[in-house]
Amino acid sequence: MLILNEQLIQSIYKIEDAIRDVENMLVAIHEGRVENPHRTVLNVPERNGSVLYMPSSDGTSMAATKIVSIFPDNSSANLPTTQGAILLTELKTGKHISLLSASYLTRLRTGALSAISARHLARPDSQVLTVIGTGGMAFEQVLGIVNVLPIQEIYLINRTVEKTYAFSEKLKEAGITAKIHTGVDRNEAVAQSDVICCATRSTEEVFDAHYVKAGTHIIGVGSYLPEMREIPLGAIEKAALIYADDYEGFKTEAGEFIDAVDRGKWLFDQLSGTLAELHVEPVERGGEDITIFKSVGAAHFDLAVAKGVFGKASQINEGEEIVL
């Protein structure tokens, strides 16, 4: 079994790799070749945390099971808020061939999904990005979005403004050249934005829909439980196009949309489609259209990046081989 740790994976597998591999998976999903059972979520309310178990198969060569824990309060103890592992199994003999650290890969595949959504649903001349929530998930969101759009300005919003300063420095160290703003009112930032990315575990709306300008693309990646909210109801009602990464997960876990349905303000039938459908059969958006992409996460995207990094590591003879 090949062991691939976090440091190695980060050194050899980048956002461009993840975007390519996730796009290939979207095609396989659309062609019906992928098996993706619904995930199991164990909540740990006394620690404000969750543990998720996520199996998937590409139907021909590989299967994967990811276990990921999300404990946002860990940041106060200088510990990772998201931790995980992926077990990769080849389907010829059922042999478990690799164990991979999954924290970075989880963030990276989510960044890739958002990038693909932005490529299809944001205006191609989008220059201003607002990121609401600068925790563990947000960094790869920025990397993905600037990879596909000509972003010139980035607004960073967090309940604790000091965290935006550190996040800004991390972006600069990663080579982000866009002008970065911190300490700005969130709705003032939203009013200037072409793309808004929400990466929080909020249980209430994180901005006022009144400030969203025509033509904006909104991405929600942080909330993944029915009681969570990020995207405001007003934005959902205004949106011309709404896509999700996984339809079944969306119906049971996308809290703001579940709430909109419960309040009689929206119907699941109004979902425009899945990202796989959008990627294979692109739609033409109007210049004034507000668009939304909602991601709750799905195991086949973890499988996509796990296969990708395993293949790359094997090719360059990296990783540690062990016998169980």
TrEMBL record:
InterPro entries: NAD(P)-bd_dom_sf (IPR036291), ODC_Mu_crystall (IPR003462), ODC_N (IPR023401)
Origin superkingdom: Bacteria
Alphabetical list of Pfam families matching this protein: OCD_Mu_crystall
Any one of the GO CC terms: cytoplasm
Protein name per its UniProtKB record: Ornithine cyclodeaminase family protein
Organism lineage string: Bacteria, Bacillati, Bacillota, Bacilli, Bacillales
